[in-house]
Write a structure and sequence with these properties.
By secondary structure, the chain is mostly helical. The protein has one domain: Four Helix Bundle (Hemerythrin (Met), subunit A) (Up-down Bundle). Helices cover 75% and strands 0% of the residues. It has 6 helices and no strands. Helix 3 runs antiparallel to helix 4. The longest helix has 44 residues. The protein starts with 22 loop residues before the first helix and ends with a helix.
């Protein structure tokens, strides 16, 4: 048995399929499912150790689904939309949860939400939906840093050796991730604006 779209040879031209049940999409769904589990572990059970494990699994699926999509030609149109949505949901939900738990401060959440809110407003204005733009390298690096820094920060709250070191490293990584977040948002802002104006011009020319 093989998953739909699996087994394509490396080196084939990249194609965005109309497939739904692909390995990358299933991994993205797994990342969605990790969000409520993380919230329950932190807010209801105060099980920070297991919460770190959930974050680690969520972060690894973000890398694995991208690798599988490229390696086995399983990139899909659904995945292009669903993957960044899963990343945003994970980052924001985890941040909100940790703010409520007192692990993070409100300004960190604001630094995440403000750029995304601006991009969402622009996307709705120009496209009334997702802009369907390719994820930039800065965006990928930003996500990786934030997904790495968050479990390190939670880990620093545990009664373990080198907790203070984990705390410092976590904020270095998160700080770099936040810088990347704003740089990526700036780039996406202009990309959305350019694409929106091109679509408007094409529509005007057809009328």
């Amino acid at each position: 048995m093989r998953f739909i779209g699996a087994g394509s040879r490396p080196g084939q031209p990249h194609v965005d399929h109309d497939l739904v049940f692909t390995v990358p999409n299933l991994l993205t769904v797994l990342r969605f499912m990790g969000v409520p589990l993380f919230i329950w572990l932190v807010l209801a059970e105060r099980e920070y150790g297991f919460a770190v494990l959930v974050l680690a699994i969520m972060g690894s699926t973000d890398w694995v689904d991208g690798y599988v999509a490229r390696r086995f030609n399983q990139a899909s149109k659904l995945g292009r939309v669903m993957d960044p949505v899963a990343d945003r949901l994970a980052l924001l939900s985890v941040a909100i949860t940790l703010v409520i738990a007192g692990v993070l401060q409100w300004w960190y959440l604001a630094a995440l939400v403000i750029p995304d809110a601006m991009l969402l407003a622009m996307s709705l204005f120009y496209f009334h939906s997702h802009p369907d733009l390719p994820v930039s390298m800065i965006g990928k690096t930003r996500t990786a840093l934030l997904l790495l820094g968050t479990p390190l920060l939670v880990l620093s709250k545990l009664d373990i050796p080198y907790a203070d070191t984990y705390f410092v490293v976590a904020w270095i990584v998160l700080g770099l991730g936040l810088i990347g977040h704003w740089v990526a948002a700036y780039n996406y802002f202009w990309a959305i604006r350019r694409k929106g104006k091109m679509l408007a011009a094409d529509g005007g020319g057809d009328s």
